[in-house]
Amino acid sequence: MTSLRVNGLTHELQLDPRTTLVDALREHLGLMGTKKSCDRGECGACTVHIDGRRVLACMTLAVMADGKHITTIEGLAPPDGGLHPVQAAFIEQDAFQCGYCTPGQIMSAVACIDEGHATSDDQIREFMSGNICRCAAYPQIVAAVRAAAASYGVHATV
Amino acid sequence: MQPFSYYRAIDLADAFGAMQRDAGGQVIAGGTELVNWLKEGIVSPPVIVDINSLPDLGAVEANAAELSIGALARMSDVAAHPQVQRNFPAIAEALHKSASQQLRNMASMGGNLMQRTRCPYFRADVDLACNKRRPGSGCAALDGYDRTAAIFGWSEHCVATHPSDVAVAFAALDATVHVRGATGVERAIPVTDFYMLPGDAPEHDNVLQRDELIVRISVPQSPVAHRSRYLKVRERTSYEFALVSVAAGLQLDGDGRITDVRIALGGVAHRPWRLAAGERALPGTSITDHAAIRAAIEGAFADARPRRQNGFKIELAKRAVVRALQVAGGNA
After folding, report:
1. What is the H or E stretch that residue B178 is in?
2. pLDDT per residue over A3-45, tens digit each?
3. What ipTM was assigned to the predicted interfaces of this complex?
4. Under CATH, which architecture does the B1-54 domain have?
5. Which residues of A touch B (CB under 8 A)?
Protein backbone atom coordinates (compact mmCIF):
# COMPACT_ATOMS: atom_id res chain seq x y z
CA MET A 1 0.00 0.00 0.00
CA THR A 2 1.09 3.56 -0.72
CA SER A 3 0.12 6.28 1.70
CA LEU A 4 -0.40 9.64 -0.03
CA ARG A 5 -1.00 12.64 2.22
CA VAL A 6 -2.74 15.06 -0.13
CA ASN A 7 -3.94 18.48 1.02
CA GLY A 8 -4.02 17.28 4.62
CA LEU A 9 -5.90 14.03 4.01
CA THR A 10 -4.22 10.62 4.04
CA HIS A 11 -5.16 8.11 1.34
CA GLU A 12 -4.09 4.45 1.34
CA LEU A 13 -3.82 3.26 -2.26
CA GLN A 14 -2.88 0.00 -3.94
CA LEU A 15 -0.87 1.24 -6.91
CA ASP A 16 1.00 -0.34 -9.80
CA PRO A 17 4.60 0.94 -9.43
CA ARG A 18 4.26 2.43 -12.92
CA THR A 19 1.61 4.89 -11.72
CA THR A 20 2.88 8.44 -11.84
CA LEU A 21 1.79 10.91 -9.18
CA VAL A 22 -0.27 12.91 -11.68
CA ASP A 23 -2.23 9.77 -12.60
CA ALA A 24 -2.66 8.80 -8.94
CA LEU A 25 -4.06 12.26 -8.16
CA ARG A 26 -6.39 12.39 -11.15
CA GLU A 27 -7.41 8.79 -11.73
CA HIS A 28 -7.31 7.35 -8.21
CA LEU A 29 -8.23 10.35 -6.05
CA GLY A 30 -10.39 12.30 -8.51
CA LEU A 31 -8.36 15.47 -8.04
CA MET A 32 -8.57 16.89 -11.58
CA GLY A 33 -6.95 20.24 -10.78
CA THR A 34 -3.45 18.94 -11.49
CA LYS A 35 -3.19 18.84 -15.28
CA LYS A 36 -1.48 16.19 -17.40
CA SER A 37 -0.14 17.77 -20.57
CA CYS A 38 3.25 16.82 -22.03
CA ASP A 39 3.70 13.90 -19.60
CA ARG A 40 7.47 14.09 -20.12
CA GLY A 41 8.67 16.78 -17.75
CA GLU A 42 8.76 19.64 -20.21
CA CYS A 43 5.68 21.84 -19.67
CA GLY A 44 5.08 22.25 -15.92
CA ALA A 45 1.27 21.80 -16.08
CA CYS A 46 1.43 19.02 -13.46
CA THR A 47 3.42 21.07 -10.90
CA VAL A 48 2.56 20.18 -7.29
CA HIS A 49 4.38 20.64 -3.99
CA ILE A 50 5.95 17.68 -2.19
CA ASP A 51 7.03 18.54 1.35
CA GLY A 52 6.82 22.19 0.36
CA ARG A 53 8.96 22.01 -2.79
CA ARG A 54 7.60 22.37 -6.31
CA VAL A 55 8.08 19.25 -8.44
CA LEU A 56 6.61 17.65 -11.54
CA ALA A 57 3.92 15.05 -10.79
CA CYS A 58 4.32 13.43 -14.23
CA MET A 59 7.96 12.59 -13.49
CA THR A 60 7.28 11.27 -9.98
CA LEU A 61 6.37 7.64 -9.43
CA ALA A 62 3.52 7.74 -6.91
CA VAL A 63 5.10 4.99 -4.79
CA MET A 64 8.08 7.31 -4.27
CA ALA A 65 5.78 9.93 -2.68
CA ASP A 66 4.74 7.43 0.01
CA GLY A 67 4.36 9.23 3.34
CA LYS A 68 5.17 12.67 1.93
CA HIS A 69 3.00 15.78 2.16
CA ILE A 70 1.55 16.67 -1.23
CA THR A 71 -0.19 19.95 -1.97
CA THR A 72 -2.23 20.38 -5.16
CA ILE A 73 -4.13 23.38 -6.50
CA GLU A 74 -7.21 22.09 -4.64
CA GLY A 75 -5.36 22.46 -1.34
CA LEU A 76 -4.12 25.99 -1.84
CA ALA A 77 -7.10 28.12 -0.85
CA PRO A 78 -7.93 28.58 2.84
CA PRO A 79 -10.90 26.52 4.13
CA ASP A 80 -13.05 29.64 4.62
CA GLY A 81 -13.83 29.75 0.91
CA GLY A 82 -11.49 32.59 -0.02
CA LEU A 83 -8.65 32.41 -2.51
CA HIS A 84 -4.92 32.12 -2.02
CA PRO A 85 -3.31 35.50 -2.81
CA VAL A 86 -1.65 34.03 -5.92
CA GLN A 87 -5.00 32.72 -7.20
CA ALA A 88 -6.54 36.15 -6.60
CA ALA A 89 -3.64 37.84 -8.38
CA PHE A 90 -4.00 35.58 -11.45
CA ILE A 91 -7.67 36.61 -11.73
CA GLU A 92 -6.91 40.28 -11.07
CA GLN A 93 -4.13 40.37 -13.68
CA ASP A 94 -6.00 38.22 -16.24
CA ALA A 95 -3.03 35.82 -16.23
CA PHE A 96 -4.57 33.09 -18.37
CA GLN A 97 -6.55 32.49 -21.50
CA CYS A 98 -7.56 28.84 -21.91
CA GLY A 99 -6.54 28.09 -18.31
CA TYR A 100 -5.09 24.63 -18.84
CA CYS A 101 -1.60 25.52 -17.61
CA THR A 102 -2.94 27.72 -14.80
CA PRO A 103 -2.96 25.25 -11.88
CA GLY A 104 0.69 24.43 -12.62
CA GLN A 105 1.51 28.12 -13.08
CA ILE A 106 -0.08 28.98 -9.73
CA MET A 107 1.60 26.11 -7.84
CA SER A 108 4.91 27.15 -9.37
CA ALA A 109 4.30 30.82 -8.57
CA VAL A 110 3.51 30.11 -4.91
CA ALA A 111 6.81 28.25 -4.60
CA CYS A 112 8.68 30.89 -6.61
CA ILE A 113 7.57 33.56 -4.12
CA ASP A 114 8.26 31.34 -1.09
CA GLU A 115 11.77 30.60 -2.39
CA GLY A 116 12.50 34.32 -2.61
CA HIS A 117 12.82 34.14 -6.39
CA ALA A 118 10.25 36.82 -7.19
CA THR A 119 12.30 39.93 -6.47
CA SER A 120 12.41 41.27 -10.05
CA ASP A 121 10.60 40.66 -13.32
CA ASP A 122 13.71 39.05 -14.81
CA GLN A 123 14.01 36.72 -11.84
CA ILE A 124 10.31 35.84 -12.05
CA ARG A 125 10.69 35.02 -15.75
CA GLU A 126 13.75 32.86 -15.04
CA PHE A 127 12.22 30.95 -12.14
CA MET A 128 8.83 30.52 -13.86
CA SER A 129 10.42 29.27 -17.10
CA GLY A 130 9.51 25.66 -16.34
CA ASN A 131 5.83 26.46 -16.88
CA ILE A 132 4.84 26.76 -20.52
CA CYS A 133 1.72 28.76 -21.52
CA ARG A 134 0.54 27.92 -25.04
CA CYS A 135 -1.72 31.01 -24.99
CA ALA A 136 1.39 33.09 -24.18
CA ALA A 137 -0.11 34.96 -21.23
CA TYR A 138 3.43 35.47 -19.98
CA PRO A 139 3.29 39.27 -19.39
CA GLN A 140 0.16 38.88 -17.28
CA ILE A 141 1.63 35.87 -15.42
CA VAL A 142 4.72 37.90 -14.52
CA ALA A 143 2.45 40.75 -13.41
CA ALA A 144 0.40 38.37 -11.25
CA VAL A 145 3.48 36.88 -9.59
CA ARG A 146 4.88 40.37 -9.01
CA ALA A 147 1.59 41.56 -7.50
CA ALA A 148 1.20 38.49 -5.31
CA ALA A 149 4.79 38.77 -4.12
CA ALA A 150 4.11 42.40 -3.17
CA SER A 151 1.01 41.34 -1.23
CA TYR A 152 3.21 38.95 0.79
CA GLY A 153 5.56 41.84 1.56
CA VAL A 154 8.17 40.99 -1.10
CA HIS A 155 8.37 43.84 -3.60
CA ALA A 156 9.58 43.11 -7.09
CA THR A 157 11.44 45.76 -9.02
CA VAL A 158 10.32 46.07 -12.63
CA MET B 1 5.92 1.30 -19.62
CA GLN B 2 6.67 -2.37 -19.12
CA PRO B 3 5.83 -3.75 -15.66
CA PHE B 4 8.53 -3.49 -13.01
CA SER B 5 8.72 -4.01 -9.30
CA TYR B 6 9.73 -1.25 -6.91
CA TYR B 7 12.19 -1.63 -4.06
CA ARG B 8 13.17 1.04 -1.56
CA ALA B 9 16.71 0.36 -0.37
CA ILE B 10 17.74 1.33 3.15
CA ASP B 11 21.52 1.46 2.65
CA LEU B 12 24.18 0.85 0.01
CA ALA B 13 24.52 -2.87 0.74
CA ASP B 14 20.76 -3.25 0.47
CA ALA B 15 20.73 -1.37 -2.84
CA PHE B 16 23.52 -3.54 -4.29
CA GLY B 17 21.71 -6.65 -3.04
CA ALA B 18 18.50 -5.63 -4.80
CA MET B 19 20.42 -4.87 -8.01
CA GLN B 20 22.08 -8.29 -7.96
CA ARG B 21 18.88 -10.22 -7.23
CA ASP B 22 17.37 -8.94 -10.48
CA ALA B 23 19.86 -8.59 -13.31
CA GLY B 24 19.13 -5.42 -15.23
CA GLY B 25 17.68 -3.54 -12.27
CA GLN B 26 17.91 0.25 -12.44
CA VAL B 27 18.62 2.72 -9.68
CA ILE B 28 16.28 5.70 -9.31
CA ALA B 29 16.99 8.93 -7.42
CA GLY B 30 15.24 12.06 -8.75
CA GLY B 31 13.70 10.11 -11.62
CA THR B 32 13.66 13.06 -14.00
CA GLU B 33 15.50 11.08 -16.66
CA LEU B 34 14.72 7.44 -15.87
CA VAL B 35 10.94 7.96 -15.77
CA ASN B 36 11.06 9.30 -19.33
CA TRP B 37 13.13 6.35 -20.51
CA LEU B 38 10.63 3.99 -18.83
CA LYS B 39 7.67 5.70 -20.51
CA GLU B 40 9.35 5.68 -23.91
CA GLY B 41 10.42 2.05 -23.68
CA ILE B 42 14.10 2.96 -23.93
CA VAL B 43 14.69 0.91 -20.77
CA SER B 44 12.50 -1.80 -19.26
CA PRO B 45 14.17 -3.02 -16.05
CA PRO B 46 12.60 -5.77 -13.93
CA VAL B 47 13.10 -3.74 -10.77
CA ILE B 48 13.54 -0.06 -9.87
CA VAL B 49 15.74 0.39 -6.80
CA ASP B 50 14.92 3.65 -4.99
CA ILE B 51 18.07 4.97 -3.30
CA ASN B 52 16.55 8.16 -1.86
CA SER B 53 16.45 6.72 1.66
CA LEU B 54 20.18 5.90 1.70
CA PRO B 55 21.82 7.81 4.55
CA ASP B 56 24.70 10.28 4.26
CA LEU B 57 24.60 10.74 0.48
CA GLY B 58 22.93 14.15 0.42
CA ALA B 59 25.48 16.34 2.15
CA VAL B 60 27.13 19.39 0.61
CA GLU B 61 30.24 20.37 2.56
CA ALA B 62 33.32 22.47 1.96
CA ASN B 63 36.61 22.58 3.83
CA ALA B 64 39.92 24.28 3.05
CA ALA B 65 40.85 21.57 0.55
CA GLU B 66 37.70 20.72 -1.34
CA LEU B 67 33.99 20.93 -1.95
CA SER B 68 32.19 17.61 -1.47
CA ILE B 69 28.74 17.07 -3.01
CA GLY B 70 26.75 13.98 -2.05
CA ALA B 71 25.26 12.01 -4.92
CA LEU B 72 21.72 12.53 -3.60
CA ALA B 73 22.06 16.30 -3.11
CA ARG B 74 19.49 18.06 -5.27
CA MET B 75 20.57 20.44 -8.03
CA SER B 76 18.58 23.37 -6.58
CA ASP B 77 20.13 22.94 -3.14
CA VAL B 78 23.68 22.81 -4.51
CA ALA B 79 23.02 25.86 -6.72
CA ALA B 80 21.83 27.82 -3.67
CA HIS B 81 24.61 26.66 -1.32
CA PRO B 82 26.54 29.73 -0.08
CA GLN B 83 29.97 28.09 -0.31
CA VAL B 84 29.28 26.84 -3.84
CA GLN B 85 28.17 30.30 -4.90
CA ARG B 86 31.17 31.98 -3.28
CA ASN B 87 34.05 29.64 -4.12
CA PHE B 88 32.75 27.73 -7.17
CA PRO B 89 30.60 30.23 -9.09
CA ALA B 90 30.82 28.24 -12.36
CA ILE B 91 29.19 25.26 -10.62
CA ALA B 92 26.40 27.40 -9.14
CA GLU B 93 25.78 29.10 -12.49
CA ALA B 94 25.80 25.84 -14.46
CA LEU B 95 23.21 24.37 -12.11
CA HIS B 96 21.11 27.51 -12.07
CA LYS B 97 21.01 27.49 -15.88
CA SER B 98 19.97 23.82 -16.07
CA ALA B 99 16.38 22.67 -16.64
CA SER B 100 13.69 24.36 -14.49
CA GLN B 101 13.36 24.89 -10.76
CA GLN B 102 10.86 22.00 -10.53
CA LEU B 103 13.34 19.63 -12.19
CA ARG B 104 16.27 21.02 -10.18
CA ASN B 105 14.27 20.34 -6.98
CA MET B 106 13.92 16.70 -8.04
CA ALA B 107 17.13 15.83 -9.88
CA SER B 108 20.10 14.48 -7.92
CA MET B 109 23.71 15.38 -8.61
CA GLY B 110 24.67 11.76 -9.23
CA GLY B 111 21.77 11.39 -11.62
CA ASN B 112 22.78 14.56 -13.42
CA LEU B 113 26.17 13.02 -14.22
CA MET B 114 24.45 9.77 -15.27
CA GLN B 115 22.34 11.46 -17.95
CA ARG B 116 22.59 9.68 -21.27
CA THR B 117 24.41 11.40 -24.08
CA ARG B 118 21.60 11.81 -26.62
CA CYS B 119 20.28 13.55 -29.70
CA PRO B 120 16.65 13.93 -30.84
CA TYR B 121 16.75 10.58 -32.67
CA PHE B 122 17.51 8.73 -29.42
CA ARG B 123 14.08 9.74 -28.10
CA ALA B 124 12.14 9.45 -31.37
CA ASP B 125 8.73 7.81 -30.87
CA VAL B 126 8.97 6.10 -34.26
CA ASP B 127 11.44 3.38 -35.12
CA LEU B 128 14.53 5.26 -36.32
CA ALA B 129 18.11 4.11 -36.44
CA CYS B 130 20.05 4.90 -33.26
CA ASN B 131 23.15 2.98 -32.26
CA LYS B 132 22.83 4.31 -28.73
CA ARG B 133 19.29 3.04 -28.31
CA ARG B 134 19.55 -0.12 -30.43
CA PRO B 135 23.23 -1.02 -30.96
CA GLY B 136 23.94 -1.83 -34.59
CA SER B 137 20.85 -0.08 -35.98
CA GLY B 138 22.81 2.84 -37.45
CA CYS B 139 22.72 6.59 -36.91
CA ALA B 140 19.77 8.55 -38.33
CA ALA B 141 21.52 11.85 -37.60
CA LEU B 142 24.26 11.15 -40.16
CA ASP B 143 21.84 11.91 -42.99
CA GLY B 144 19.32 13.88 -40.96
CA TYR B 145 19.12 16.71 -38.45
CA ASP B 146 22.58 17.42 -37.06
CA ARG B 147 22.40 21.11 -36.16
CA THR B 148 22.87 20.32 -32.46
CA ALA B 149 25.37 17.50 -33.04
CA ALA B 150 28.95 17.23 -31.83
CA ILE B 151 31.91 18.96 -33.48
CA PHE B 152 34.59 17.13 -31.48
CA GLY B 153 35.22 13.44 -30.93
CA TRP B 154 32.21 12.02 -32.80
CA SER B 155 32.27 8.84 -34.84
CA GLU B 156 30.22 7.55 -37.76
CA HIS B 157 28.29 5.57 -35.13
CA CYS B 158 27.10 8.51 -33.04
CA VAL B 159 27.22 12.32 -33.17
CA ALA B 160 25.24 13.10 -29.98
CA THR B 161 26.30 15.52 -27.23
CA HIS B 162 26.16 15.21 -23.47
CA PRO B 163 23.36 17.35 -21.98
CA SER B 164 24.74 18.17 -18.51
CA ASP B 165 25.77 21.73 -17.71
CA VAL B 166 27.33 21.06 -14.33
CA ALA B 167 29.49 18.25 -15.74
CA VAL B 168 31.15 20.92 -17.90
CA ALA B 169 31.92 23.02 -14.83
CA PHE B 170 33.16 19.91 -13.02
CA ALA B 171 35.42 19.02 -15.97
CA ALA B 172 36.94 22.50 -16.03
CA LEU B 173 37.55 22.55 -12.27
CA ASP B 174 39.22 19.11 -12.09
CA ALA B 175 36.40 17.48 -10.13
CA THR B 176 36.44 13.80 -9.19
CA VAL B 177 33.56 11.31 -9.20
CA HIS B 178 33.76 8.93 -6.23
CA VAL B 179 32.04 5.61 -6.85
CA ARG B 180 31.59 2.58 -4.63
CA GLY B 181 31.25 -0.99 -5.83
CA ALA B 182 29.14 -3.80 -4.45
CA THR B 183 32.27 -5.26 -2.80
CA GLY B 184 32.86 -1.98 -0.96
CA VAL B 185 35.78 -0.93 -3.14
CA GLU B 186 35.88 2.79 -3.93
CA ARG B 187 37.16 4.34 -7.13
CA ALA B 188 37.99 8.00 -7.68
CA ILE B 189 37.46 8.92 -11.34
CA PRO B 190 38.34 12.37 -12.71
CA VAL B 191 35.25 13.83 -14.42
CA THR B 192 37.39 14.27 -17.53
CA ASP B 193 37.79 10.45 -17.63
CA PHE B 194 34.23 9.59 -16.57
CA TYR B 195 32.58 9.90 -19.99
CA MET B 196 33.43 7.87 -23.07
CA LEU B 197 33.69 8.98 -26.68
CA PRO B 198 31.28 7.07 -28.95
CA GLY B 199 33.80 5.12 -31.04
CA ASP B 200 32.11 1.96 -32.29
CA ALA B 201 30.13 1.36 -29.06
CA PRO B 202 28.10 4.54 -28.41
CA GLU B 203 25.67 2.64 -26.18
CA HIS B 204 28.23 3.17 -23.41
CA ASP B 205 28.01 6.68 -21.99
CA ASN B 206 30.44 6.46 -19.10
CA VAL B 207 32.82 4.15 -17.26
CA LEU B 208 30.56 3.37 -14.28
CA GLN B 209 30.18 -0.38 -13.91
CA ARG B 210 26.82 -2.06 -13.32
CA ASP B 211 27.71 -2.92 -9.73
CA GLU B 212 28.88 0.59 -8.86
CA LEU B 213 27.10 3.68 -7.55
CA ILE B 214 28.25 7.29 -7.44
CA VAL B 215 28.51 8.35 -3.79
CA ARG B 216 29.88 11.89 -4.11
CA ILE B 217 31.67 14.42 -6.28
CA SER B 218 34.65 16.38 -4.98
CA VAL B 219 36.07 19.60 -6.38
CA PRO B 220 39.41 21.00 -5.20
CA GLN B 221 39.44 24.53 -3.80
CA SER B 222 41.61 26.78 -5.96
CA PRO B 223 42.00 30.39 -7.03
CA VAL B 224 40.88 29.29 -10.50
CA ALA B 225 37.65 27.78 -9.12
CA HIS B 226 37.09 30.91 -7.07
CA ARG B 227 37.29 32.98 -10.25
CA SER B 228 35.26 30.75 -12.54
CA ARG B 229 32.13 31.39 -14.61
CA TYR B 230 29.72 29.43 -16.76
CA LEU B 231 28.47 30.86 -20.05
CA LYS B 232 25.57 29.06 -21.71
CA VAL B 233 24.54 29.91 -25.28
CA ARG B 234 21.11 28.59 -26.22
CA GLU B 235 18.18 29.33 -28.49
CA ARG B 236 16.00 30.78 -25.73
CA THR B 237 16.94 32.60 -22.55
CA SER B 238 15.93 29.91 -20.08
CA TYR B 239 14.92 26.25 -19.83
CA GLU B 240 16.84 24.99 -22.86
CA PHE B 241 19.89 22.82 -23.52
CA ALA B 242 23.09 24.51 -24.61
CA LEU B 243 24.05 24.93 -28.22
CA VAL B 244 27.48 25.67 -26.82
CA SER B 245 28.54 26.34 -23.25
CA VAL B 246 31.82 27.25 -21.59
CA ALA B 247 33.07 26.82 -18.05
CA ALA B 248 36.18 28.92 -17.53
CA GLY B 249 38.26 29.79 -14.50
CA LEU B 250 41.49 31.78 -14.34
CA GLN B 251 44.08 33.55 -12.27
CA LEU B 252 45.56 36.91 -13.22
CA ASP B 253 48.79 38.58 -12.19
CA GLY B 254 49.02 42.21 -11.09
CA ASP B 255 49.18 43.37 -14.70
CA GLY B 256 46.02 41.49 -15.71
CA ARG B 257 47.90 38.70 -17.48
CA ILE B 258 46.60 35.17 -17.28
CA THR B 259 48.80 32.97 -15.09
CA ASP B 260 46.58 29.90 -14.79
CA VAL B 261 43.42 28.89 -16.62
CA ARG B 262 40.93 26.03 -17.02
CA ILE B 263 38.38 25.77 -19.85
CA ALA B 264 35.78 23.15 -20.74
CA LEU B 265 33.12 23.24 -23.43
CA GLY B 266 29.62 21.77 -23.37
CA GLY B 267 27.29 20.98 -26.24
CA VAL B 268 30.15 20.08 -28.56
CA ALA B 269 30.97 16.43 -27.86
CA HIS B 270 29.87 13.13 -26.36
CA ARG B 271 31.42 14.38 -23.13
CA PRO B 272 32.51 17.72 -21.59
CA TRP B 273 35.37 18.88 -23.81
CA ARG B 274 38.39 20.20 -21.96
CA LEU B 275 40.31 22.77 -24.03
CA ALA B 276 43.79 21.67 -22.99
CA ALA B 277 45.65 23.26 -25.90
CA GLY B 278 44.02 26.59 -25.12
CA GLU B 279 44.97 26.30 -21.47
CA ARG B 280 48.61 25.77 -22.47
CA ALA B 281 48.65 28.70 -24.88
CA LEU B 282 46.87 31.33 -22.78
CA PRO B 283 49.26 32.06 -19.86
CA GLY B 284 50.94 35.43 -20.36
CA THR B 285 48.03 36.81 -22.37
CA SER B 286 46.44 40.03 -21.14
CA ILE B 287 42.78 39.59 -20.19
CA THR B 288 42.01 42.87 -21.97
CA ASP B 289 43.61 41.78 -25.26
CA HIS B 290 40.66 40.24 -27.09
CA ALA B 291 42.65 39.42 -30.24
CA ALA B 292 45.46 37.74 -28.31
CA ILE B 293 43.01 35.58 -26.35
CA ARG B 294 41.31 34.59 -29.58
CA ALA B 295 44.66 33.74 -31.20
CA ALA B 296 45.71 31.64 -28.20
CA ILE B 297 42.64 29.40 -28.32
CA GLU B 298 42.56 28.88 -32.11
CA GLY B 299 44.84 25.85 -31.97
CA ALA B 300 42.49 24.04 -29.59
CA PHE B 301 39.93 23.90 -32.41
CA ALA B 302 42.27 22.31 -34.96
CA ASP B 303 40.60 18.93 -34.51
CA ALA B 304 37.03 20.25 -34.65
CA ARG B 305 35.07 18.48 -37.40
CA PRO B 306 31.82 20.15 -38.36
CA ARG B 307 28.94 18.22 -39.81
CA ARG B 308 26.51 19.54 -42.44
CA GLN B 309 24.35 21.82 -40.28
CA ASN B 310 26.48 22.59 -37.23
CA GLY B 311 29.56 24.33 -38.62
CA PHE B 312 28.42 27.51 -36.88
CA LYS B 313 29.21 25.87 -33.55
CA ILE B 314 32.96 26.20 -34.14
CA GLU B 315 32.90 29.99 -34.45
CA LEU B 316 30.24 30.22 -31.74
CA ALA B 317 32.37 28.17 -29.37
CA LYS B 318 35.48 30.27 -30.02
CA ARG B 319 33.60 33.48 -29.32
CA ALA B 320 31.97 31.94 -26.25
CA VAL B 321 35.39 30.95 -24.86
CA VAL B 322 36.74 34.47 -25.31
CA ARG B 323 33.62 35.91 -23.69
CA ALA B 324 33.69 33.45 -20.76
CA LEU B 325 37.36 34.22 -20.07
CA GLN B 326 36.67 37.96 -20.11
CA VAL B 327 33.66 37.52 -17.80
CA ALA B 328 35.70 35.34 -15.43
CA GLY B 329 38.48 37.93 -15.52
CA GLY B 330 36.05 40.71 -14.69
CA ASN B 331 36.61 42.36 -18.04
CA ALA B 332 33.30 42.01 -19.88
Report:
1. strand B176-181
2. 999 999 999 999 999 999 999 999 999 999 999 999 999 999 9
3. 0.97
4. 2-Layer Sandwich (3.30)
5. 16-18, 20, 39-41, 44, 47, 53-56, 58-61, 63-64, 108, 111-112, 115, 117, 125-127, 129-131
